[in-house]
Amino acid sequence: MERKRWRVFLDTSALIAGGVSPTGAAREVLRLAEARVIELIMSRQVLAEADRNLAAKLPTLLDDYHLLLRQLAPVVVEDPSHAAAQRGRPSHPSERWHRFWRQPGLRWWTTLSRGIRATS
After folding, report:
1. How does DSSP classify residue 74?
2. d(Cα 120, Cα 118) in Å, to the nearest integer?
3. Residue 50 and residue 87 in contact, taking contact as beta carbons nearer than 8 Å
4. Strands 38-43 and 6-9
5. CA distance 97 to 90
């Protein structure tokens, strides 16, 4: 019986950090995705923002970044509407600035330091 993989949404900063650093939590998330232990989820906005930031700040890494994306084969989801993003409510007062949206099968939005429970 095949074990169901966790679906993990990766934001722009974690994607770039994992791609440029040989160590760290973001790199480990990318390694888990490459090994198909987890299913990586990214929005079109994350991909565009990462591409734009790398082109501006680290243009020599663009080819390697695009190769990494092909190897990771993330599931690309549509960007949330403004209203959907506003429905997200952080469960911890120190996480007020975080927003997330619910996707079918996605129950937790996770930073590298803690999980934030999705709300209805």
Report:
1. P
2. 7
3. no
4. parallel
5. 8
- CA dist., res. 95 & res. 89, Å (int): 9
Rounded CA gap, 81 and 101, in Å? 9
Per-residue pLDDT of the chain (120 residues; tens, 9 = 90+): 667 888 888 889 999 999 999 998 899 999 999 999 999 999 999 999 999 999 999 999 999 999 999 999 999 988 877 676 666 554 444 444 444 444 555 554 444 444 444 433
Among all chains, which residue has been given the structure tokens 């565009």?
48
| DSSP designation for 112 | S
In angstroms, the Cα distances linking 86 to 9, 15, 41, 95, 107 are 18, 23, 20, 14, 17
Phi-psi region of 34 (alpha: psi -120 to 50; beta: other; left: phi over 0): alpha
Token output for 118: 């999705």
Best CA proximity match to 34, nearest among 65, 7, 72, 74: 72
Angle 72-100-15 (CA atoms, 0-180°, nearest 5)? 30
